[in-house]
Write a structure and sequence with these properties.
Largest sheet: 7 strands, mixed
Number of strands: 11
Number of helices: 0
Distance between the termini: 40 Å
Helix content: under 10%
Order of helices and strands: EEEEEEEEEEE
């Protein structure tokens, strides 16, 4: 069984930055994808970034060139560096590995 714990969310002004972390425990395989999703009130959960290896990453069009996903396989941690944040980035962000989900961390972008 895999457990995922997110951290790093908070309130930030537009144009600011945040770094989210997701610590994974249990049977984690570095070849398997890890991903960050987000869900805003009244909207469907969407995948914003996915990583299967250090050089294999995918991003939603809405976050390309602003967000960077990375992972430390030795520590089983996946990060999401978020720059140039916009109000529309406001959502609860979830870490995902296979069929496991974290509890989510709130990101609010507001002036």
């Amino acid at each position: 069984q895999v457990q995922l714990v997110e951290s790093g969310g908070g309130l930030v002004q537009p144009g600011g930055s945040l770094r989210l972390s997701c610590a994974a425990s249990g049977r984690i395989f570095s070849a398997y994808a890890m991903a960050w999703y987000r869900q805003a009130p009244g909207k469907q959960r969407e995948c914003v970034a996915r990583i299967t290896s250090p050089s294999s990453t995918n991003y939603a069009d809405s976050v390309k060139c602003r967000f960077t996903i990375s992972r430390d396989n030795a520590k089983n941690i996946v990060y999401l560096q978020m720059n140039s944040l916009k109000t529309e980035d406001t959502a609860t962000y979830y870490c995902n590995y296979s069929d496991s989900w974290g509890q989510g961390t709130q990101v609010t972008v507001s002036s």
